[in-house]
Write the structure tokens for this entry.
Amino acid sequence: MNTIQLGFSRTAYELRLYFRQGDSVFFTFLFPILMLSVFAVAFSTSGNIGAAPDGSGGISWAAFYVPGMVAAGMLLSGVQNLGVDIAGEKGDGTLKRLGGTPLPVFSYFMGKIGMVLVSSVFQVILLLLVARFAFNVELPTEPEKWLTFAWVFLFGVITSCVLGIALSALPRTGKSATAVVIPIVLLLQFISGVYLNFAQLPGWLQNFASIFPLKWMAQGMRSVFLPASFEVAEPSGAWDLGLVALVLGVWLVVGLILCRLTFRWIRKDS
Amino acid sequence: MTPNPVQVRDLTKSYGGFMAVDGVSFDIVAGETFALLGPNGAGKSTVIEILEGYRDRSSGDVQVLGVDPQRGGLDWKAQLGIVLQSSGESGNVTVLEQLTHFAGYYPNPRRVSEVIDAVGLGEKAKTRISKLSGGQRRRVDVALGIIGRPKLLFLDEPTTGFDPAARRQFWGLINQLKAEGTTILLTTHYLDEAATLADRAGVIVNGKLVDIGPIDTIGGADARVPLVRWRQDGVVREERTPEPAALATRLYTEKGGEVPGLEITRPSLEDIYLSMVAAHEKGAADASDPAERESA
């Protein structure tokens, strides 16, 4: 098999392992769905958000949280899942074994990214189904919105994966991986408009969050799932999809360079 | 004439000031099974991991299948089979799935079902690796090591955790690989395993190769002098002699009858190895004076 065929073979193998591993499926796969449910239920009596002064219009809190949870799912599947997964494989000797075979590193990466892409597509479909049928969230019908969804999703997931692979070099042991990775993704979720309304964060925090990709994934998803009336609440007063693409692109390149520089099957001489 | 599959010259590996491997040289010829023996921490695994490309050497020259392992590419790795000392966890796949997947990495793999049968896991083919016993998992490691039809097979303590029957079966498998012309580098703690499988052995103590040669010459002729043991006046006496039958006859004549507790033994490889290791470790301890070490 050539490098690309091996990448697909790895993807199938990784998916099989992923879905057989009960705990990670629960925590990373269902997490955004659980969080959406928590927020939707918690604020179910708080009326609509973005309503006119007379109480008409606006959207439900469930609908308001959909874009943030889609973005969180993209980040978790890539950064958290792969960051912890690969650090664990380094710790338990899986990578050492692979490093002794003629498997190309690129095929290994392809397998990881392919596994995340497939599982996160299932995840987002399930999330949207729950939003639509459990919480009665109106989903967009315009094809151009779904086109935006598709590229932000694909671009965001791949960038998250590459950053997750790069981040996996940081923990010194497989056991410390969650301790290193989870605070990073948790903090990002709080400052990037996933759990908290981004428009209500202080300006300096908005600016700080804008350095990182999650803020832009969430913003891209807001442009898809929120009504046009919410656009003025963005810091610049616009969805800025061009900037979303630019920032994700920069992080993708940074992540690829980091992977190239830091990824090793094993730490030599450790 | 093609060069030997493994050539090691003056290999050293130091960690800080500690010499884990200190001036080791040996060759392994094509088709040979070579055993590297030595106590824990002597440097066996460091040597084998340098040859596998996992560790960089400090100095010396190493060629494995004509390639410097520090520069070995994928084509080079495709010709190697590596059974590491500890195995990676991929518990949630079955034996069959794992081997089928790994077979795909290699240009000319063995048939998966044949390999599974060869390591004696035919009945466990559809069992998840996490459900196997330690010894059975070790056999999966061995299966993964040979699935790619390697020219050179590294076995780092392959039979740790095997029961005696499994070990015998494993020896049969290795003999089959030898018959197919596979060159094998083996480390083991079991001297009977080395004696059964290896054509030659090297003994490493404290990072130095203290002896090398065919199994039946390790330790030299003196170490193989038979031992005669008997009981005289309730006390066990023993004497080493190259002519044990003569001594036994003399004792019989002197006593005018059967000699109580008479035994004639030849030191096993294990006896020879243990006395050799003890002698060298003592030697190293005596030489632990830093000034002497500098001049050594």
User: Anything to note?
Assistant: DSSP finds ten helices and twelve strands in chain B.
